[in-house]
Structures are given as structure tokens and as C-alpha cells.
Amino acid sequence: MSHDTITATRRRLLAAAIALACGLATPVLAGVYLEGDLNALRITASGDALSDVLTTLGARWPVRYRSSVLLNVEIAGAYSGSLSQVVARLLDGYNYVIRRDGGLTEIIVFGARGEAVVAPRVNPVKGVLSRWR
User: Are 94 and 50 in contact (CB under 8 A)?
Assistant: First the structure.
């Protein structure tokens, strides 16, 4: 290889390293890329589980999620907008809320839209007077 070819190769490697260091597209999990910030976010996924995409958000920012159902639907494509807008697109078909507490954002998924939620059976607590008969 000539000196010019080696120099050109080194320049390309250096440019790629700088681009990754600047956070142009940071892969946190295989196939999930994040760009921007929580106000102007872009997520690109390639067939990853919804739970993995949400976990990726928490790996980079103070975002956590809880779910009462499995979130194993595959996500493929690019989603952009604010965090609320992106979450709305990702969780289309689910009942959920977004709760902000200080610097933490919590996404709580209750279940798929249209499914009946069965509340756990609670035995009523009897008062002291009910025991005196």
C-alpha cells in the first residue's frame, strides 16, 4: 500500500471516530440508535423489542418504564419528535401514562388498548365493631 492510501484510510477512521464521539447516532443496544435530546429525539430501531427500545431511552436519559404486560412487539423504523410524541407512536395500541417527577420521566404501561383490566380481588377489612356480635 502506498503512503497516500494509508493516510486516506487513517483519515476515514479518524472521521468515523469523531462522528461517533460527537454522538451523531449512538447505538445503545444492538439495532437501536438515539440522536438528539428529549425535546428533539430520533430513535431508529431495526426489529428490536419495544421493551428494548424503552430500556435504551433509560440507558441514556433519566427515563424509566414499568409495564403490566410483555412489550415484545418488534419495532422497526425511525421515530422523531419530543419524548412524548415518540412514546405516543411507540405505544400506539397500549394504555399508558407518562409521569414526570423532578428530572425523572416514568412511562407506565397498563396493557393493550381494548383489553379488560382485571383488578385483583381484595378482601374487605372488617372493623373492630363487626367482631362484637
Answer: no
Q: Write the burial class of residue 75 (CB in 10 Å: 0-12 exposed, 13-18 middle, 19+ buried).
A: buried
Residue that is written with C-alpha cell 438528539 in the block: 36
Please write the tens of the pLDDT for every residue from 71-116. 999 999 999 999 999 999 999 999 999 999 999 999 999 988 877 6
Domain count, the chain: 1
Range of the domain at 105: 25-113
| Cα 29 from Cα 48, distance rounded (Å) | 9
In terms of DSSP H, where are the helices of 1-133?
3-21, 50-60, 83-90
Q: Is residue 11 part of a domain?
A: no
Q: Is the pTM for the entire model greater than 0.70?
A: no
